[in-house]
Protein 1
Amino acid sequence: MSDKLEILGDPDAESCDGEVCELPAHREQAVMNRRIDEDRI
Amino acid sequence: MTEPIKVDVWSDIACPWCFIGKRKFEAGAAQFAAEFGGEVEVEYHSFELSPDTPVDFDGSEHDYLVTRGFPADKITGMLDRVSGIAESVGLHYDYDALQHTNTVLAHQLIHYAKAHGRQLEMKERLLAAYFEQGRHVGRVDDLADLAAELGFDRDDVVRSLSSNEYLDAVRADQELAIEYGIQGVPFFVIDGKYGVSGAQDASTFASVLTQVRDEKAAVA
């Protein structure tokens, strides 16, 4: 994140990162799965 | 009377948390207005989560996610959870009807509406069309129909989208997102100074807006 901004709020709030839009508890694993998939490609 | 607090929001159409986050932000802004009479000026900016998405995909959202490597046995539960949270803020997501598509033209339409002073209306219309009404938001004719329903000149919308009139504006928003280091959406930049990521609780948005208001009052 740029140092132009001071980040506020809950860092675990739901957001979409690429095509990964799961609930926070599942996001980390989903990102990992996607990266493994991309590496395989 | 204090001047409105500027809130720049990076967001995509094909982003379930962006619509939910929009509702939560609106609730937070309403709390801020009720408590302090504070006003916000909101501007939406383009962010494509998946720019390589095809315009047309013959299948459901579940089918699409399978093609992208998501485990099939997890997808239904995932979509149900998202839909449940959407319901909690008054949104009725219909993943069975949703038509997955590329959103670059929809972003151009939002810029078109902004040039006509109606950006917020178009943003809301596109999100509802995509998540709640199963409308296609990736093709010129479909987008022109949606715009015409809001009273825009359909022929002029077709002209604008067909010529990629606002593609540079979309790209400029994306460049600015990179400068800010934004990787996920929704992302709210408040008063050009504070970053708030994701579909936060309404109270969080109200709290940040109040903080900005207090800081501005202190230096006034």
Protein 2
Amino acid sequence: MTNIGKEIRLSRIIDPEDGKAVVVAADHGFMLGPIKGVVNLEETLIKVVEGKPDAVLLSPGQARRLNHLFRGKKAPALLVRADWTNAFRDKTYTLPARSIKRVAVANAKGALSLGASGIVTYYFIGHSEDETEAYNFQLTSIFSRECEKLGLPFIVEALPFGERVTGANYAQLISVAMRIAVEAGADAIKTAYTGDVDSFRRAVRSAGVPVLVLGGAKARTLRDALEVVEEALTAGGSGVVFGRQVVQADDPKTFVSSVRMVVHEGKSVRDVISPYRGPIRLLVRAKNCVGCRECQLACSFFHEGEISLKKSRIRVDVELPEKFMPFPCTLCGKCVEACPTQALTFNPELKYVEFTAERCIGPKGCRKCVDACPFKVVGWNDDVKNPFICDMCKGNPKCVEYCPTDALLTAPLKGV
Amino acid sequence: MNGGKELRLSHVLNPVDGRGVILEADLGSMLGGVPGLEDMSKVREALGAVDAFILSLGQIDRLLDCLKGKGGPSLIVRSDWTNAYRGGDYILPAVDLRYVSTVTPEDALRHGADAVAAYLIVGYDRDEDEASNMEALASTARACEEYGLPLLVQVLPVGGRVTEENYFDCVKLGVRQAVEVGGDLIAAPLKRGGGDLFKQLVELAKAPLMMLEDFSEAVEPATLARSAVESNAAGVILGRKTLQAAKFAEIVRNVRSTIHGGLTP
Amino acid sequence: MNRILTVDLTQEKFNTQSLDERVVYRLLGGKGLATWILYQMVKPDVNPLDPENVLALATGPLNGTIAPCQKLCIASKSPATGTINDSYMGGWIGGELKFSGYDAVVITGRAEHPSMLVVDDGNVSVKRCERLWGMNTSAAERKVIEELGEGFKVAVIGPAGERMSPIAPVFSNLRSAGRGGLGAVMGSKNLKAIAVRGFRGVKVHDESMFERMVWIALRTLRMNEVTVRSLPIYGTDNILLTINETGALPTRNFQTGRFEGAEMISGESYRSELWLKDFSCCLGCNIRCSKIMKAKRGGGEVYVDGPDYETIFSLGSNCGVSDKEAIAYANYLCDEYGIDTISVGVIIAFYMELYEKGYLKGEDLPVKPIFGDGEAMVKLAELIGKGEGVGKTLQMGVKRLAEKYPGSEKFAMHVKGLEMPGYEPRAAQGMGLCYAVSERGACHLRAYTAGVELCGYGGGADPLSHDRAKVQLAIDRQDEKAVVDSSVLCFFTLFGLKLKEVYQMVVSATGFEYKDPDELKKLGARIITLSRLFNVREGFSRKDDTLPYRCLEEPLPEGPARGQVVHLDEMLDEYYELRGWDHEGIPEKETVSKIGLKDII
């Protein structure tokens, strides 16, 4: 016997066509104060709504003030945060929390009077005091009963949080927290990604209700944010709740639209982020280089199957205290010119330098390409007496992918 | 009006033009399985054209799939019962005009309601019946406020004391009472040729006022729709008359395009 | 993952050995490996500065790969404490060791002349280097690379290590294995430098799985506040204002936990005034906590990697000094002469309190060691670095210094002879336990509970609680750190990664069939117990797991922890019980076998 009210309202949050949801949480002001992005919440939310999320989560006060942003059938559904916690106020915020507290601030009826299609509350597990968890569970049960009576979807944000959470038990605690919340009556769960597909899949299966994954703290790149979403979906997740990453983004509308493409349209992350597939060149932003040499390590790993600074196709100069400089291939073509046997040519389609081993006379002592390179980027593989030649990873350079500071970038190769 | 009411009302009345097209499909509770409502499948033909259905509790399950997701019809739940529709030609004609409240807004919510519909009958023979209707309506209205549910009050001038001469005044009375008791969306019937009078009603009401089909005398749905637009009404509520028509789907689509122009839901 | 280079400096003999697979499986590498080697090879009667002491350089399965933030473990018996001492150094030499085909180097004996050990892609030699002896660290490192060639990565000691000062670190690429006097051990072996170059590649067990797991690990580091906004921008000093606010910033030799000059030496103020560049000084690091700063001094300018938080506490607030350039310059001097900034600062602060309390009456003082005098602090750091004048005695550390001044041991801030780092234990009870039970003396990088207690990471914990839950927190942190120290990755990765990500990388790199992250945590606990066994054999027990009188008996005068002392005894009881050690802190026989040590030691 289903609860019809819950079913109808949940379908306004989770699209019945594909069973997935893109939700934006904007209740940070409540927990953290006026952080960036929520200072002028209305302004931010107008942009967010343009990206067409399925639902938006607000605190009761803001739900009342910003109610007008939810008009019309196609507007996002309104979710109301029904409890408050200091758990997220770590040392970077004013008055950091010293022990985790959580209290109810609204009930199902109040949320409905604000126009809510669902309420969201926290369920934390991992406190050192069992009493706190007992209280947590009781509060959750009370919410659950009210929501049952009124046909309001009850979404629980289940998270490991507290002194007893360790690196070893974290992923498992996510699973436990979710399941307990479901047993208490949650219709859907919002939780952190366990970090990998297998453990998340197990957790989702054990929950048995739609699970929305948290977008997490601000990702440095859209790629990271979308990859987490993609993985969570692969593991059986039903969608994602992004908070700070959206409200603090320079372009919230595009962010939300990008997420929709991955969640509702099944597009791959790479297609959403960098659809360009033509010839590329490598750009260097030397002032960003920090000398980590990950580009060299990644290059050798992906080309040679083993890691060595001496087997890479990109060079990094570190001259303390200030001069850090990566030297990638610039496509100058001097090595191509110098090669006497056309073992080096430009790939006709993608324009990178292509090496054909059969034509190389390195084993006979030739090293003309190494000498010709004006930036000393062409290394020498002494095992097989061949040069190390950069092939731009055929369009998806690993050095760029692994650079942590955008010291290496790609750009379309024009005018060739 | 509070946030919840405004938000939910915007699912019934399109915020762009302030109008809506509602299909009253709950008549089965008052009249049984009348033509058009035998198995509720005909109701589905109105999908994409109407903004909301009025349904009785028991039928929501059968149409659940239409009500899910965004963009589909909103659910208005019938909160009361009357024998006012049982005219002389009905199998069991009403002897005494009766009204009772049957579903609380809380029940309606549990069943997924976006709004609640209730009747305000004008012209009861007995004063205690009018009082009773008002009491029930008030109770529903108060609960609707608590839950943020918009209340649709359908004014029916069908009591014994309604005459040709006092008809318009009765409707005026009913509309005003509906607003005073706490209705958010009011509906009243249109008499043939009574477009100007309806316009006055709209101005007086100061709340969105829709045209009710089934107690509108001999007015075709298409005419009703045009009159609604001309008199600045908030739209129309189509009922049994349209449901019984052969070209039901076509009629509803035409009504929609008159009311909303090319606007999508 | 099992090629050990043994070097006998006395006989100039080199050997390559492999260890029993069981040992490697149970102890992983890095800290685990080094602890085992020292346990097997260093007997209790060996003086740390004797030729019989062993210096072990151990890498772990994630070194020389694409894993983030790689370090090298260097370990020995400490001349400062007499305990086991494992220290973690950044730079690139750990990876280079792997590229040269070795997982670890074990050095014994003593070279006849000042020498350097050269490992050139499998060719091992010991070269005399009298010309390097006496050179400062940066000059020595540059000279070695100049002579041997590009592509070499070099670790050196400074003049302080040469004269076997117990506070001398080992340096490489501006980073150091800082504490416990490993530089002195090298000096005692007449070893000025270790130079490594390799042309081989490191292979991993399951390439595609490893790639996936490293990407996930990198991603977690990119998605964590601390490793994205705090450390990369402000470096380690990002926590100073928070530590000050929580009343845990040691000030004037731990007399109090709040420093009035904190704003002037905060991470924010250093960034805005002295910052030059961000630097990923460790191989594969995407956190780049290191900051190159510029300090003006006497008409000139010096560059220094730092100062880091610990240096800013020890030479700054702990000496009452708020002159940020003085601190940076003193850091530079310490790096050049080759002395540990934590120990130096705590020694100077102790000296300042001795002066304040009148202990130094009648002594000939080169400068008046007054709290808050930046110039005096710099001068003293220089003297300690050079080992000149009063520096000769000061360099021996506060424990030995206090022996000269009866009564002063109450405020000689050390445990087991290692000077106390930058968290006031009375304001964070967990850190009190951490310092007391750390295997190498007062070290914060063991059971590091400060992040949770004071900075509120991971949900936070009440800093004043000292119950079983707090002890369990400390144990969990200690075990996790031991795993990271055996892999060998940087401590800071744990802000983003959990043990699960480390587990995934380790399993895919090694092919070892650890069942789950918890099995790795047990591995960590195993290593802690093994290092405890080393210390027990040296004669350490509960009586040494203690804190200075100041922490145990003097209530903290101000701040949120006002009135607190460290409730150590109760925590020790719980700690030993949870670890399966007896009331004296000696691992029970049953524990030793249950924990998987009995058959491999």
